[in-house]
Protein backbone atom coordinates (compact mmCIF):
# COMPACT_ATOMS: atom_id res chain seq x y z
CA UNK A 1 0.00 0.00 0.00
CA UNK A 2 2.95 2.35 -0.34
CA UNK A 3 1.29 3.22 -3.61
CA UNK A 4 -1.15 5.67 -2.07
CA UNK A 5 1.68 7.60 -0.46
CA UNK A 6 2.30 9.27 -3.79
CA UNK A 7 -0.61 11.60 -3.12
CA UNK A 8 0.85 13.17 0.00
CA UNK A 9 2.95 16.29 0.22
CA UNK A 10 3.70 16.03 3.94
CA UNK A 11 7.20 14.68 3.43
CA UNK A 12 9.86 15.77 0.94
CA UNK A 13 10.59 12.11 0.31
CA UNK A 14 7.14 11.52 -1.10
CA UNK A 15 6.31 14.90 -2.54
CA UNK A 16 7.19 13.80 -6.07
CA UNK A 17 5.06 11.22 -7.74
CA UNK A 18 6.34 7.93 -9.04
CA UNK A 19 5.47 8.72 -12.62
CA UNK A 20 8.20 11.39 -12.70
CA UNK A 21 10.68 8.59 -13.05
CA UNK A 22 9.29 7.81 -16.48
CA UNK A 23 9.72 11.37 -17.71
CA UNK A 24 13.27 11.81 -16.47
CA UNK A 25 14.91 11.67 -19.92
CA UNK A 26 12.75 14.60 -21.00
CA UNK A 27 13.28 16.62 -17.83
CA UNK A 28 15.94 19.32 -18.31
CA UNK A 29 16.53 19.79 -14.61
CA UNK A 30 19.99 18.30 -13.90
CA UNK A 31 19.31 17.55 -10.24
CA UNK A 32 19.55 13.88 -9.41
CA UNK A 33 17.09 14.07 -6.55
CA UNK A 34 13.77 13.87 -8.36
CA UNK A 35 12.12 10.62 -7.38
CA UNK A 36 10.74 9.13 -4.26
CA UNK A 37 12.18 5.97 -2.81
CA UNK A 38 10.34 2.78 -3.69
CA UNK A 39 11.76 -0.73 -3.79
CA UNK A 40 9.40 -1.89 -6.48
CA UNK A 41 9.18 -2.98 -10.12
CA UNK A 42 8.29 0.63 -10.97
CA UNK A 43 12.02 1.29 -11.24
CA UNK A 44 12.27 -1.42 -13.86
CA UNK A 45 9.46 0.15 -15.83
CA UNK A 46 11.30 3.47 -15.87
CA UNK A 47 14.05 2.19 -18.10
CA UNK A 48 11.49 0.95 -20.62
CA UNK A 49 9.89 4.36 -21.05
CA UNK A 50 13.00 6.29 -22.00
CA UNK A 51 13.02 8.36 -25.14
CA UNK A 52 14.08 6.76 -28.45
CA UNK A 53 17.20 8.89 -28.46
CA UNK A 54 18.20 7.57 -25.07
CA UNK A 55 17.63 3.98 -26.20
CA UNK A 56 19.73 4.59 -29.29
CA UNK A 57 22.57 5.83 -27.10
CA UNK A 58 22.44 2.62 -25.13
CA UNK A 59 22.49 0.39 -28.20
CA UNK A 60 25.25 2.23 -30.07
CA UNK A 61 27.88 1.86 -27.38
CA UNK A 62 31.54 2.69 -28.03
CA UNK A 63 34.45 0.71 -26.73
CA UNK A 64 34.24 0.34 -22.93
CA UNK A 65 36.36 2.52 -20.71
CA UNK A 66 39.03 0.12 -19.41
CA UNK A 67 39.39 1.86 -16.08
CA UNK A 68 36.43 4.12 -15.31
CA UNK A 69 36.76 6.11 -12.12
CA UNK A 70 34.53 8.73 -10.57
CA UNK A 71 35.78 12.27 -10.88
CA UNK A 72 36.05 14.75 -8.06
CA UNK A 73 32.72 15.64 -6.56
CA UNK A 74 31.88 12.48 -4.68
CA UNK A 75 31.59 14.73 -1.65
CA UNK A 76 28.62 16.41 -3.29
CA UNK A 77 27.15 13.02 -4.07
CA UNK A 78 27.63 12.12 -0.42
CA UNK A 79 25.62 15.16 0.60
CA UNK A 80 22.87 14.18 -1.84
CA UNK A 81 22.83 10.68 -0.38
CA UNK A 82 22.59 11.90 3.20
CA UNK A 83 19.89 14.45 2.36
CA UNK A 84 17.69 11.54 1.25
CA UNK A 85 18.88 8.98 3.80
CA UNK A 86 18.40 11.05 6.94
CA UNK A 87 14.67 11.75 6.53
CA UNK A 88 14.18 8.20 5.25
CA UNK A 89 15.75 6.92 8.47
CA UNK A 90 12.97 8.62 10.45
CA UNK A 91 10.32 6.63 8.63
CA UNK A 92 12.28 3.37 8.73
CA UNK A 93 13.07 3.71 12.44
CA UNK A 94 9.40 3.68 13.40
CA UNK A 95 8.79 -0.07 13.53
CA UNK A 96 12.15 -0.97 15.15
CA UNK A 97 11.58 1.68 17.81
CA UNK A 98 8.15 0.24 18.57
CA UNK A 99 9.71 -3.21 19.01
CA UNK A 100 12.47 -1.79 21.20
CA UNK A 101 9.93 -0.05 23.44
CA UNK A 102 7.88 -3.24 23.79
CA UNK A 103 11.01 -5.26 24.52
CA UNK A 104 12.17 -2.79 27.18
CA UNK A 105 8.87 -2.85 29.07
CA UNK A 106 8.20 -6.59 28.71
CA UNK A 107 11.75 -7.36 29.85
CA UNK A 108 10.89 -5.99 33.28
CA UNK A 109 8.01 -8.47 33.63
CA UNK A 110 10.28 -11.50 33.39
CA UNK A 111 12.68 -13.39 31.16
CA UNK A 112 10.01 -15.89 30.04
CA UNK A 113 7.74 -13.09 28.85
CA UNK A 114 10.61 -11.35 27.06
CA UNK A 115 11.51 -14.61 25.33
CA UNK A 116 7.86 -15.17 24.39
CA UNK A 117 7.65 -11.77 22.69
CA UNK A 118 10.75 -12.63 20.67
CA UNK A 119 9.20 -15.85 19.38
CA UNK A 120 5.84 -14.22 18.63
CA UNK A 121 7.33 -11.26 16.78
CA UNK A 122 9.44 -13.60 14.64
CA UNK A 123 6.35 -15.60 13.64
CA UNK A 124 4.30 -12.45 13.02
CA UNK A 125 6.97 -10.99 10.73
CA UNK A 126 7.32 -14.23 8.80
CA UNK A 127 3.62 -14.51 8.01
CA UNK A 128 2.92 -10.83 7.34
CA UNK A 129 5.87 -10.08 5.07
CA UNK A 130 5.17 -13.06 2.85
CA UNK A 131 1.94 -11.34 1.82
CA UNK A 132 2.86 -7.67 2.23
CA UNK A 133 5.93 -7.50 -0.02
CA UNK A 134 4.21 -8.52 -3.30
CA UNK A 135 1.18 -6.40 -2.39
CA UNK A 136 3.41 -3.38 -1.79
CA UNK A 137 5.13 -3.66 -5.15
CA UNK A 138 2.15 -4.60 -7.33
CA UNK A 139 -0.13 -1.87 -6.01
CA UNK A 140 2.65 0.69 -6.26
CA UNK A 141 3.00 -0.07 -9.94
CA UNK A 142 -0.60 0.23 -11.07
CA UNK A 143 -1.40 3.22 -8.84
CA UNK A 144 1.60 5.04 -10.31
CA UNK A 145 0.41 4.29 -13.84
CA UNK A 146 -3.05 5.65 -13.21
CA UNK A 147 -1.74 8.70 -11.37
CA UNK A 148 0.47 9.57 -14.35
CA UNK A 149 -2.56 9.57 -16.64
CA UNK A 150 -4.60 11.63 -14.17
CA UNK A 151 -1.81 14.18 -13.81
CA UNK A 152 -1.77 14.80 -17.56
CA UNK A 153 -5.54 15.33 -17.57
CA UNK A 154 -5.28 17.78 -14.67
CA UNK A 155 -3.04 20.07 -16.73
CA UNK A 156 -6.04 21.00 -18.85
CA UNK A 157 -8.25 21.74 -15.86
CA UNK A 158 -8.03 24.53 -13.29
CA UNK A 159 -10.70 23.06 -11.05
CA UNK A 160 -9.49 21.65 -7.73
CA UNK A 161 -11.23 18.45 -6.78
CA UNK A 162 -10.58 15.03 -5.36
CA UNK A 163 -9.02 12.55 -7.73
CA UNK A 164 -11.09 9.52 -8.67
CA UNK A 165 -8.56 6.73 -9.05
CA UNK A 166 -10.04 3.23 -9.07
CA UNK A 167 -6.59 1.76 -8.51
CA UNK A 168 -6.37 3.42 -5.09
CA UNK A 169 -9.70 1.93 -4.04
CA UNK A 170 -8.57 -1.43 -5.40
CA UNK A 171 -5.34 -1.18 -3.41
CA UNK A 172 -7.20 -0.39 -0.21
CA UNK A 173 -9.60 -3.28 -0.72
CA UNK A 174 -6.69 -5.63 -1.43
CA UNK A 175 -4.87 -4.38 1.66
CA UNK A 176 -7.90 -4.88 3.87
CA UNK A 177 -8.44 -8.37 2.49
CA UNK A 178 -4.82 -9.39 2.93
CA UNK A 179 -4.71 -7.92 6.44
CA UNK A 180 -7.85 -9.76 7.54
CA UNK A 181 -6.49 -13.02 6.10
CA UNK A 182 -3.24 -12.52 8.02
CA UNK A 183 -5.14 -11.81 11.23
CA UNK A 184 -7.22 -14.97 10.90
CA UNK A 185 -4.20 -17.12 10.05
CA UNK A 186 -2.12 -15.78 12.95
CA UNK A 187 -4.92 -15.93 15.50
CA UNK A 188 -6.36 -19.34 14.68
CA UNK A 189 -3.02 -20.90 13.80
CA UNK A 190 -1.02 -19.75 16.82
CA UNK A 191 -0.77 -23.29 18.25
CA UNK A 192 0.45 -24.73 14.97
CA UNK A 193 2.91 -21.86 14.44
CA UNK A 194 4.42 -22.43 17.89
CA UNK A 195 4.83 -26.09 16.99
CA UNK A 196 6.70 -25.05 13.85
CA UNK A 197 9.01 -22.95 16.03
CA UNK A 198 9.60 -26.11 18.14
CA UNK A 199 8.39 -24.53 21.40
CA UNK A 200 7.42 -27.41 23.76
CA UNK A 201 4.00 -27.41 25.43
CA UNK A 202 5.61 -27.39 28.87
CA UNK A 203 7.89 -24.44 28.09
CA UNK A 204 7.22 -21.30 30.17
CA UNK A 205 7.32 -19.36 26.90
CA UNK A 206 4.52 -21.30 25.20
CA UNK A 207 1.40 -19.78 26.78
CA UNK A 208 2.55 -16.13 26.81
CA UNK A 209 3.86 -16.48 23.24
CA UNK A 210 0.51 -17.75 21.97
CA UNK A 211 -1.32 -15.12 23.97
CA UNK A 212 0.81 -12.30 22.56
CA UNK A 213 0.54 -13.62 18.98
CA UNK A 214 -3.27 -13.92 19.11
CA UNK A 215 -3.66 -10.34 20.28
CA UNK A 216 -0.94 -9.04 17.96
CA UNK A 217 -2.79 -10.61 15.03
CA UNK A 218 -5.57 -8.03 15.35
CA UNK A 219 -3.03 -5.42 14.27
CA UNK A 220 -2.36 -7.05 10.89
CA UNK A 221 -5.06 -5.16 8.91
CA UNK A 222 -3.94 -1.64 9.89
CA UNK A 223 -0.29 -2.59 9.30
CA UNK A 224 -1.00 -3.51 5.69
CA UNK A 225 -3.01 -0.35 5.08
CA UNK A 226 -0.46 1.83 6.88
CA UNK A 227 2.53 0.61 4.87
CA UNK A 228 2.10 3.92 3.08
CA UNK A 229 2.20 5.98 6.27
CA UNK A 230 4.70 8.81 6.46
CA UNK A 231 7.32 9.21 9.16
CA UNK A 232 5.16 11.77 10.97
CA UNK A 233 2.24 9.33 11.18
CA UNK A 234 4.48 6.56 12.51
CA UNK A 235 6.01 8.87 15.12
CA UNK A 236 2.49 9.57 16.42
CA UNK A 237 1.91 5.82 16.68
CA UNK A 238 5.23 5.29 18.47
CA UNK A 239 4.44 7.98 21.03
CA UNK A 240 1.05 6.45 21.76
CA UNK A 241 2.61 2.98 22.05
CA UNK A 242 5.22 4.26 24.52
CA UNK A 243 2.48 5.88 26.64
CA UNK A 244 0.15 2.87 26.60
CA UNK A 245 2.81 0.24 27.33
CA UNK A 246 3.46 1.10 31.00
CA UNK A 247 -0.22 1.83 31.63
CA UNK A 248 -1.54 -1.44 30.22
CA UNK A 249 1.38 -3.63 31.33
CA UNK A 250 1.96 -2.39 34.88
CA UNK A 251 -0.78 -0.01 36.03
CA UNK A 252 -3.70 -2.09 34.78
CA UNK A 253 -1.79 -5.35 35.25
CA UNK A 254 -2.37 -6.83 31.79
CA UNK A 255 1.24 -7.94 31.48
CA UNK A 256 2.33 -9.22 28.08
CA UNK A 257 -1.23 -8.84 26.76
CA UNK A 258 -0.98 -5.13 27.52
CA UNK A 259 2.12 -4.85 25.35
CA UNK A 260 0.32 -6.48 22.43
CA UNK A 261 -2.76 -4.29 22.93
CA UNK A 262 -0.66 -1.10 23.04
CA UNK A 263 1.00 -2.00 19.74
CA UNK A 264 -2.30 -2.85 18.03
CA UNK A 265 -3.96 0.39 19.20
CA UNK A 266 -1.04 2.47 17.91
CA UNK A 267 -1.20 0.70 14.54
CA UNK A 268 -4.89 1.51 14.14
CA UNK A 269 -4.11 5.14 14.96
CA UNK A 270 -1.52 5.26 12.15
CA UNK A 271 -3.94 3.70 9.67
CA UNK A 272 -6.73 6.11 10.67
CA UNK A 273 -4.52 9.19 10.20
CA UNK A 274 -3.33 7.87 6.85
CA UNK A 275 -6.85 7.30 5.51
CA UNK A 276 -8.01 10.66 6.87
CA UNK A 277 -5.24 12.54 5.05
CA UNK A 278 -5.63 10.45 1.90
CA UNK A 279 -9.34 11.21 1.82
CA UNK A 280 -8.53 14.91 1.42
CA UNK A 281 -6.99 14.19 -2.00
CA UNK A 282 -8.56 11.02 -3.34
CA UNK A 283 -11.99 9.37 -3.38
CA UNK A 284 -11.30 6.35 -1.20
CA UNK A 285 -14.16 4.15 -2.33
CA UNK A 286 -14.50 4.48 -6.06
CA UNK A 287 -17.49 2.74 -7.69
CA UNK A 288 -15.05 1.46 -10.33
CA UNK A 289 -13.00 -0.94 -8.22
CA UNK A 290 -10.89 -3.01 -10.61
CA UNK A 291 -11.42 -6.57 -9.50
CA UNK A 292 -9.16 -7.86 -12.25
CA UNK A 293 -6.20 -6.03 -10.71
CA UNK A 294 -6.21 -8.52 -7.85
CA UNK A 295 -4.96 -11.12 -10.28
CA UNK A 296 -1.74 -9.15 -10.67
CA UNK A 297 -1.12 -9.58 -6.96
CA UNK A 298 -1.95 -13.27 -7.05
CA UNK A 299 0.09 -14.05 -10.16
CA UNK A 300 3.11 -11.80 -9.78
CA UNK A 301 5.85 -11.23 -7.27
CA UNK A 302 7.42 -14.70 -7.48
CA UNK A 303 10.96 -13.37 -7.27
CA UNK A 304 9.97 -10.95 -4.52
CA UNK A 305 8.31 -13.67 -2.48
CA UNK A 306 11.31 -15.96 -2.94
CA UNK A 307 13.66 -13.22 -1.84
CA UNK A 308 11.48 -12.38 1.16
CA UNK A 309 11.35 -16.01 2.27
CA UNK A 310 15.12 -16.28 1.91
CA UNK A 311 15.51 -13.14 4.01
CA UNK A 312 13.18 -14.24 6.80
CA UNK A 313 14.13 -17.92 7.09
CA UNK A 314 17.58 -17.40 8.70
CA UNK A 315 16.19 -15.08 11.37
CA UNK A 316 13.18 -17.31 12.05
CA UNK A 317 15.42 -20.36 12.24
CA UNK A 318 17.77 -18.55 14.63
CA UNK A 319 14.85 -17.68 16.90
CA UNK A 320 13.60 -21.27 16.87
CA UNK A 321 17.04 -22.71 17.68
CA UNK A 322 17.59 -20.30 20.55
CA UNK A 323 14.07 -20.78 21.93
CA UNK A 324 14.73 -24.50 22.26
CA UNK A 325 17.53 -23.71 24.70
CA UNK A 326 15.18 -22.09 27.22
CA UNK A 327 13.67 -18.71 28.14
CA UNK A 328 16.84 -17.23 29.62
CA UNK A 329 18.85 -17.82 26.46
CA UNK A 330 15.96 -16.63 24.32
CA UNK A 331 15.55 -13.45 26.36
CA UNK A 332 19.24 -12.58 25.96
CA UNK A 333 19.07 -13.32 22.25
CA UNK A 334 15.97 -11.15 21.91
CA UNK A 335 17.78 -8.13 23.37
CA UNK A 336 20.70 -8.61 20.98
CA UNK A 337 18.47 -9.17 17.98
CA UNK A 338 16.22 -6.17 18.65
CA UNK A 339 19.17 -3.81 18.99
CA UNK A 340 20.92 -5.36 15.98
CA UNK A 341 17.82 -5.10 13.78
CA UNK A 342 16.95 -1.57 14.90
CA UNK A 343 20.42 -0.22 14.15
CA UNK A 344 20.88 -2.28 11.00
CA UNK A 345 17.54 -1.23 9.55
CA UNK A 346 18.51 2.40 10.02
CA UNK A 347 21.28 1.82 7.50
CA UNK A 348 18.59 0.69 5.07
CA UNK A 349 17.96 4.41 4.59
CA UNK A 350 21.25 4.41 2.70
CA UNK A 351 19.81 1.77 0.39
CA UNK A 352 16.82 4.00 -0.29
CA UNK A 353 19.12 6.91 -1.17
CA UNK A 354 21.31 4.70 -3.33
CA UNK A 355 18.30 3.35 -5.21
CA UNK A 356 16.78 6.77 -5.83
CA UNK A 357 19.95 8.45 -7.04
CA UNK A 358 21.19 5.54 -9.13
CA UNK A 359 17.78 4.95 -10.76
CA UNK A 360 17.53 8.63 -11.67
CA UNK A 361 20.99 8.83 -13.25
CA UNK A 362 20.64 5.44 -14.93
CA UNK A 363 17.27 6.18 -16.54
CA UNK A 364 18.54 9.53 -17.84
CA UNK A 365 21.62 8.00 -19.43
CA UNK A 366 23.88 9.93 -17.04
CA UNK A 367 26.24 6.99 -16.60
CA UNK A 368 29.18 9.05 -15.39
CA UNK A 369 27.02 10.43 -12.63
CA UNK A 370 25.69 6.93 -11.90
CA UNK A 371 29.24 5.72 -11.38
CA UNK A 372 29.86 8.57 -8.95
CA UNK A 373 26.76 7.55 -7.01
CA UNK A 374 27.91 3.94 -7.01
CA UNK A 375 31.36 4.64 -5.60
CA UNK A 376 30.18 7.43 -3.32
CA UNK A 377 27.42 5.49 -1.61
CA UNK A 378 29.62 2.42 -1.08
CA UNK A 379 32.90 3.99 -0.03
CA UNK A 380 32.14 7.36 1.46
CA UNK A 381 28.76 6.82 3.08
CA UNK A 382 28.12 3.08 3.53
CA UNK A 383 31.45 2.06 5.02
CA UNK A 384 31.75 5.23 7.11
CA UNK A 385 28.26 4.84 8.55
CA UNK A 386 28.77 1.17 9.38
CA UNK A 387 32.09 1.86 11.08
CA UNK A 388 30.59 4.68 13.12
CA UNK A 389 27.68 2.53 14.28
CA UNK A 390 30.10 -0.24 15.26
CA UNK A 391 32.11 2.14 17.42
CA UNK A 392 29.00 3.49 19.15
CA UNK A 393 27.66 0.00 19.89
CA UNK A 394 30.99 -1.30 21.20
CA UNK A 395 30.99 1.55 23.72
CA UNK A 396 27.29 1.76 24.55
CA UNK A 397 25.93 -1.76 24.21
CA UNK A 398 26.33 -2.70 27.89
CA UNK A 399 24.48 0.31 29.38
CA UNK A 400 21.87 0.12 26.64
CA UNK A 401 21.20 -3.57 27.32
CA UNK A 402 20.51 -2.85 30.98
CA UNK A 403 17.42 -0.88 29.95
CA UNK A 404 15.73 -4.09 28.84
CA UNK A 405 16.08 -6.25 31.94
CA UNK A 406 17.52 -6.44 35.44
CA UNK A 407 18.04 -10.22 35.27
CA UNK A 408 21.79 -10.76 35.62
CA UNK A 409 21.74 -14.05 33.71
CA UNK A 410 19.87 -12.54 30.80
CA UNK A 411 22.24 -9.56 30.74
CA UNK A 412 25.24 -11.87 30.75
CA UNK A 413 23.93 -13.68 27.69
CA UNK A 414 23.08 -10.42 25.95
CA UNK A 415 26.54 -8.96 26.56
CA UNK A 416 28.15 -12.07 25.11
CA UNK A 417 26.66 -10.95 21.78
CA UNK A 418 28.44 -7.58 21.74
CA UNK A 419 30.84 -8.67 19.02
CA UNK A 420 27.95 -9.87 16.86
CA UNK A 421 25.81 -6.75 17.35
CA UNK A 422 28.59 -4.18 16.98
CA UNK A 423 31.14 -5.92 14.80
CA UNK A 424 28.71 -6.74 12.02
CA UNK A 425 27.59 -3.15 11.43
CA UNK A 426 30.09 -2.26 8.66
CA UNK A 427 29.11 -5.43 6.79
CA UNK A 428 25.41 -4.73 7.35
CA UNK A 429 25.65 -1.17 6.08
CA UNK A 430 27.33 -2.13 2.81
CA UNK A 431 25.00 -5.12 2.31
CA UNK A 432 21.95 -2.88 2.68
CA UNK A 433 23.43 -0.34 0.28
CA UNK A 434 23.99 -3.09 -2.28
CA UNK A 435 20.32 -4.05 -1.95
CA UNK A 436 19.37 -0.51 -2.92
CA UNK A 437 21.76 -0.54 -5.86
CA UNK A 438 20.15 -3.75 -7.18
CA UNK A 439 16.78 -2.04 -7.29
CA UNK A 440 18.26 1.14 -8.73
CA UNK A 441 19.15 -0.67 -11.96
CA UNK A 442 16.26 -3.18 -11.80
CA UNK A 443 18.57 -6.14 -11.09
CA UNK A 444 15.73 -8.02 -9.38
CA UNK A 445 16.61 -11.51 -10.57
CA UNK A 446 20.15 -11.52 -9.22
CA UNK A 447 18.98 -9.91 -5.96
CA UNK A 448 16.51 -12.76 -5.42
CA UNK A 449 18.86 -15.61 -6.33
CA UNK A 450 21.73 -14.18 -4.28
CA UNK A 451 19.46 -13.89 -1.25
CA UNK A 452 18.26 -17.48 -1.63
CA UNK A 453 21.83 -18.81 -1.77
CA UNK A 454 22.96 -16.69 1.18
CA UNK A 455 19.93 -17.75 3.21
CA UNK A 456 20.46 -21.43 2.47
CA UNK A 457 24.17 -21.42 3.38
CA UNK A 458 23.73 -19.40 6.58
CA UNK A 459 20.80 -21.54 7.71
CA UNK A 460 22.87 -24.68 7.15
CA UNK A 461 25.71 -23.17 9.21
CA UNK A 462 23.32 -22.45 12.09
CA UNK A 463 21.84 -25.95 12.02
CA UNK A 464 25.32 -27.49 12.18
CA UNK A 465 26.88 -25.06 14.65
CA UNK A 466 24.05 -24.54 17.15
CA UNK A 467 24.27 -27.97 18.85
CA UNK A 468 27.98 -27.53 19.58
CA UNK A 469 28.54 -23.77 19.90
CA UNK A 470 25.11 -22.59 21.07
CA UNK A 471 24.37 -18.89 20.67
CA UNK A 472 27.83 -18.19 19.26
CA UNK A 473 27.17 -20.61 16.42
CA UNK A 474 23.77 -19.05 15.71
CA UNK A 475 25.12 -15.51 15.71
CA UNK A 476 27.97 -16.61 13.45
CA UNK A 477 25.39 -17.96 11.01
CA UNK A 478 23.56 -14.62 10.95
CA UNK A 479 26.84 -12.78 10.38
CA UNK A 480 27.66 -15.12 7.50
CA UNK A 481 24.24 -14.36 6.04
CA UNK A 482 25.04 -10.65 5.88
CA UNK A 483 28.61 -11.25 4.71
CA UNK A 484 27.46 -13.45 1.84
CA UNK A 485 25.06 -10.73 0.71
CA UNK A 486 27.99 -8.31 0.63
CA UNK A 487 30.20 -10.77 -1.26
CA UNK A 488 27.47 -11.45 -3.82
CA UNK A 489 26.96 -7.76 -4.45
CA UNK A 490 30.68 -7.09 -4.78
CA UNK A 491 30.98 -9.96 -7.24
CA UNK A 492 28.08 -8.66 -9.31
CA UNK A 493 29.59 -5.20 -9.52
CA UNK A 494 33.03 -6.60 -10.25
CA UNK A 495 31.89 -8.75 -13.16
CA UNK A 496 29.92 -5.85 -14.68
CA UNK A 497 27.25 -8.19 -15.94
CA UNK A 498 23.49 -7.80 -16.33
CA UNK A 499 22.22 -4.20 -16.17
CA UNK A 500 25.50 -3.10 -14.55
CA UNK A 501 27.39 -3.33 -17.82
CA UNK A 502 25.55 -0.24 -19.05
CA UNK A 503 27.34 1.91 -16.48
CA UNK A 504 30.64 1.22 -18.23
CA UNK A 505 29.74 0.23 -21.78
CA UNK A 506 27.20 2.92 -22.63
CA UNK A 507 28.22 6.54 -23.30
CA UNK A 508 26.95 9.42 -21.26
CA UNK A 509 24.03 11.37 -22.68
CA UNK A 510 25.26 14.29 -24.82
CA UNK A 511 25.24 17.62 -23.05
TrEMBL record:
Coiled coil: none
Membrane topology, record value: Multi-pass membrane protein
UniProt keyword list: Membrane, Transmembrane, Transmembrane helix
Residue ranges, annotated region (Disordered): 47-72
Pfam families: MatE (PF01554)
Subcellular locations according to the entry: Membrane
Signal peptide (from-to): none
Membrane-spanning parts: 172-194, 247-276, 297-319, 339-361, 373-397, 413-434, 446-466, 472-493
The organism's place on the tree of life at top rank: Eukaryota
Residue stretches of biased makeup (Polar residues): 47-59
GO CC, one annotated term: membrane
GO molecular function: antiporter activity; transmembrane transporter activity; xenobiotic transmembrane transporter activity
Database matches in InterPro entries: DinF-like, MATE_fam
NCBIfam families attached to this UniProt entry: matE
Protein family: Belongs to the multi antimicrobial extrusion (MATE) (TC 2.A.66.1) family.
Protein's UniProt name: Protein DETOXIFICATION
Organism for this UniProt entry: Brassica napus (Rape)
Amino acid sequence: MAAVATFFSLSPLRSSSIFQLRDLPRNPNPSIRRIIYLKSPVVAASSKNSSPQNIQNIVESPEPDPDPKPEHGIGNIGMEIMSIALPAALALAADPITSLVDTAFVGHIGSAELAAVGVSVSVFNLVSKLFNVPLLNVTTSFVAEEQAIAAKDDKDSTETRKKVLPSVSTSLVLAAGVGIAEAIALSLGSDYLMDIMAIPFDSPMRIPAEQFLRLRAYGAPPIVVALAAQGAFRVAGNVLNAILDPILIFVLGFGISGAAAATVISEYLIAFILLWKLNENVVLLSPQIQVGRANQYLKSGGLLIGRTVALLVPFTLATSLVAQKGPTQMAGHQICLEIWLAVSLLTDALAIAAQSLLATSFSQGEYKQAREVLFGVLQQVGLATGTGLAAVLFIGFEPFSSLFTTDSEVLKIALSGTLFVAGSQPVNAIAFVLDGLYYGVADFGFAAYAMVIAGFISSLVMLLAAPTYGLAGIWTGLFIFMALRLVAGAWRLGTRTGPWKMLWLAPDKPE
